[in-house]
Amino acid sequence: MNPSEYLNIQKEHVDSYLDRYLLPETVKPESIHRAIRYSVFSGGKRFRAGLCIAACETFGGGLEHALPIASGIELIHAYSLIHDDLPCMDDDDLRRGKPTLHRVFGENIAVLAGDALNALAFDLISRAEDCSLIRILARAIGTEGMIGGQVADVESVEKVDLTVADVEFIHTRKTAALIRASLEMGALAGGAKDRDVEMIGEFGAYIGLAFQVVDDILDIESTDEVLGKNVGSDEDKDKATYPKVYGLARSKEIARNQIGRGKRILDRIERETEALRGLADFVIGRVY
Length: 288
Ligand code: GRG
What we know:
Blueprint: H1 3-21, H2 30-40, H3 47-58, H4 63-85, E1 94-95, E2 98-99, H5 101-105, H6 107-125, H7 132-141, H8 146-156, H9 164-189, H10 194-221, H11 224-227, H12 233-236, H13 242-246, H14 248-266, H15 274-285
Antiparallel strand pairs: 1-2
Bound molecules: geranylgeranyl diphosphate.
């Protein structure tokens, strides 16, 4: 099975789980439940959920162990996208080919929908027996992780002497931290031993960085139609990206090298890692 087919299958599982979990739009206050569903079911790839499920299954866990966690991770991801698009952040109009949440529901509801998704995600993750999953997620999205990366990203815009280290700092936190945590949490839910969780986390750090480097490249080389968002916005906003500090050709090489390093970590795991390898290749091959 190719990685896109694999992701589409996992996406169906996750979407159906979330459809049952999230409150219907008819529940008061209707606006927040409509907004949450608008954001969650707007067509994401479910890459982080796919990683979580693949990691869980790699270590012998079943889909039923992975699904609440994979779904919770996608709620965190949805929350980060809503807040990232806000006028006080990137001020974007388009996401996944549709108007951004605040353009449809207003800024106040968008902020609250993001906050609600954060709370709901922890409700789902708390269904895992092992409470260390909650700690992994909280750290991955806090000031040492996603939020820390976002702060550095926002502040980098005014930086005149942006360095390679600055961009690496942003990317490893803003994007790679959640990707890494998705794998670690999936592995733990599948019953992996500490050493394997550590290795899967290292794999996640490599492919997570590559994911954001490819995101930077697509923002230059793709189109609005294919990407579902406004391309060229990084350059317009003078954002800290790999192509900005390394150029396009070297950025592509770096992304490929990261994937190669990640796969070499998988060689050391004494399990069938085909699904994880496929998802690593997906990072490089993806067009949106
Ligand atoms: C929610 C913890 C938290 C923090 C808010 C706004 C913010 C702070 C962080 C922004 C993080 C962010 C949006 C990083 C970009 C990551 C990225 C490459 C997103 C696109 O991911 P895809 O391609 O999207 O997987 P789809 O649409 O497929 O789900």
